[in-house]
């Protein structure tokens, strides 16, 4: 059994918000994330080649931190939600100002609303001569989404992910919105969190990108993630910098699991290696039995 520690008010500390960026294809999600990441490299960080991993943290010049989930399309977000993982605190929805509110924009809005997380709109590509941010805001208003300029409560910011115009203001609005959520976690306990993605790397074995949501993960911890377990042998960020520990709202890639867990799997840390392994084995067994049963029917 997995016993979760019930935190007292005194044990809780403010944590960084976890953000997902969504929007219609080509409206500028990747460009926005790239711009934010390049502008907010933590001082003294080695400038290694940035590998694409599903999540990473940035530290703004103000010192404030934000964790971004960088999921291709909406699949991972939906997959995680389908598995009951509540990972995102806030969603940025990118809409290109030279286009319209599109089917995937509407889908992103529905996902955020279904998850009950606040939305901040980034009206992108305002550097383009044919950009018409007001048209986008009007289209949103017909969907009952009133942004602040239109007398509503939903935050929006005109930006250019290409020139960077408005991006700092966007992040300020995101942080303001996050502050109202009063996000807290207990950093002083065994880590608990969610798997973002995992793969088998030829040279390094199974690499799992996870998001620590509560507690602190340390090298040497025994972990159970979905059907897999193992001792955390190494941890690193998306730039390949080694890390010794990772607290709440920290995305981190780890080595040491005996397989690749699925996106949305929860992970837990155990004092005892055997217990983690036993539960992992039991879960694999149960799944095998289940698949045999489904094949029979
Ligand atoms: P994604 O599919 O939502 O990730 O969109 P991308 O970030 O790949 O952007 C799609 C295209 O729009 C690329 O050619 C970008 O260079 C371009 N683009 C993105 N943001 C801007 C912007 O603010 N201004 C201009 N002019 N082009 C942009």
From TrEMBL:
- Every copy of the Tr-type G domain together lies at 14-184
Instruction: Tell me which domain of life the UniProt entry assigns to the organism this sequence originates from.
Output: Bacteria
Q: Give compartment(s).
A: Cytoplasm
Residues that, per the record, bind GTP: 23-30, 70-74, 124-127
What exactly does this protein do? Answer: One of the essential components for the initiation of protein synthesis. Protects formylmethionyl-tRNA from spontaneous hydrolysis and promotes its binding to the 30S ribosomal subunits. Also involved in the hydrolysis of GTP during the formation of the 70S ribosomal complex.
Family statement: Belongs to the TRAFAC class translation factor GTPase superfamily. Classic translation factor GTPase family. IF-2 subfamily.
Q: What is this protein called?
A: Translation initiation factor IF-2
Which organism is the protein's source?
Lutibacter oceani
Tell me the organism's taxonomic lineage: Bacteria, Pseudomonadati, Bacteroidota, Flavobacteriia, Flavobacteriales
- Which residues of the intact protein are shown? 441 to 737 of 957
